[in-house]
Design goal:
Blueprint (H helix, E strand, L loop, with lengths): L1 H25 L5 H8 L1 E10 L12 H9 L4 E5 L5 E4 L12 E9 L4 E9 L7
Parallel strand pairs: 3-5
Antiparallel strand pairs: 1-2, 1-4, 2-3, 4-5
Keywords: Signal
């Protein structure tokens, strides 16, 4: 009887140590979704404008028009400086106060919808000459 109790105690202790060691090694690991999300982040510099004007409004002169159109219900877009591509902004609350501005954004592009989900944004250093 003592032998059975001793074997059960040793097995319980061994399993407990193994579980503790496995849990300790996972503490520094990132969840798979967080690693995947950060891997897809892209940085784009361009103009925040509206879907009515698109690339035509991608300049410093278009700020007032962009603000008016977005306030009137138009959807916000980002016009990439590098290639002129227009990306729909799928989280418009992220650009509040930056309508018509030249910005650098970091976010996740959805090429099937031609949209970007903005994670962070800052004013761009200098607007390109138009």
């Amino acid at each position: 009887m003592k032998r059975i109790v001793l074997v059960v105690l040793v097995l319980t202790l061994a399993l407990g140590v193994a579980a503790w060691a496995n849990g300790a090694s996972d503490k520094g690991a990132k969840p798979a979704t967080a690693a995947k999300a950060s891997a897809g982040a892209t940085t784009v510099t361009g103009w925040i404008t509206d879907d009515k004007c698109g690339a035509k409004g991608a300049n410093a002169k278009g700020e007032a028009c962009t603000k008016k159109c977005i306030a009137g219900g138009a959807h916000a877009v980002l016009v990439n400086d590098a290639d002129g591509k227009v990306w729909a902004i799928d989280n418009a609350d992220a650009i509040k106060g930056h309508e018509g501005h030249h910005v650098t954004v970091t976010g996740h592009l959805d090429t099937t919808k031609n949209s970007i989900h903005i994670a962070s944004m800052k004013m761009a250093a200098e607007a390109p000459k138009s």
